[in-house]
Amino acid sequence: MDININSTTLSLIKGDITQQDTEAIVNAANSRLAGGGGVDGAIHRAGGPSIMEECIRIGGCPTGSAVITTGGNLKARYVIHAVGPIYKGGKGRERELLESAYRKSLEIAIEKGIKSISFPSISTGAYGYPTKEASEIALGTVIDFIKGNKGLDIVRFVLFSEGDLKVYEGSLNKIKKV
């Protein structure tokens, strides 16, 4: 599913983020940048040890922020490591921190002159964020950013499962009607 906003194509696909050919992919990282399971582990395995070496040099990243490394052995030239919040029932700052993780990733892309970027569904795996709520936050944040910033040609959400893709498509259709 694709929509165009200004000169940017926003795309939703089912796939493996480690196989994307966008200039940058986003890693759903932890604050220690220590690798892990899910998307984080897959990116580190596919990208090779050079990504972890850079993460160790960087040292860490606070929740709601992002840092950039090279892509190692990946097709993508860069990996933007975004740290989303652990979901605690929505009573804390989870929404604000998730919005910030997406926005900071996009800001880094613009600063680096990156024209194409692929996102996973940040915080919805081991961090427990409900996918429907997270998808609305992710898409809303990205669309608002695209409307206010030029420079990105492609912003792609790469969803691992058909179920997650359907949730994101439903959220995008809901946003388009507003």
What are the defining features of this structure?
41% helix, alpha/beta, seven-stranded mixed sheet, 178 residues
What's the number of structural domains?
A: 1
Low-confidence residue ranges? none
The CATH superfamily is identified as: Leucine Aminopeptidase, subunit E, domain 1
The helix tally amounts to 5
Spatial strand sequence of the major β-sheet:
1-2-7-6-3-5-4
How far apart the termini lie comes to 18 Å
CATH topology-level name: Leucine Aminopeptidase, subunit E, domain 1
Task: Report the structural category.
Answer: alpha/beta
Number of strand segments: 7
CATH class: Alpha Beta
CATH architecture annotation name: 3-Layer(aba) Sandwich
What does this structure look like?
This protein is an alpha/beta fold and 178 residues long. The protein has a single domain, classed as 3-Layer(aba) Sandwich (Leucine Aminopeptidase, subunit E, domain 1). The chain has 5 helices and 7 strands; from the N terminus they run E-E-E-H-H-E-E-H-E-H-E-H. The chain has helices spanning 38-47, 49-58, 94-112, 131-148, 162-177, and strands at residues 2-5, 8-14, 24-29, 66-70, 78-83, 116-119, 154-159. It has a 7-stranded mixed beta sheet with strand order 1-2-7-6-3-5-4, sandwiched between helices. Strand 4 and strand 5 form a beta hairpin. Helix 4 packs across helix 5 (162-177). The longest helix has 19 residues, at 94-112. It is globular. The two termini are 18 Å apart.
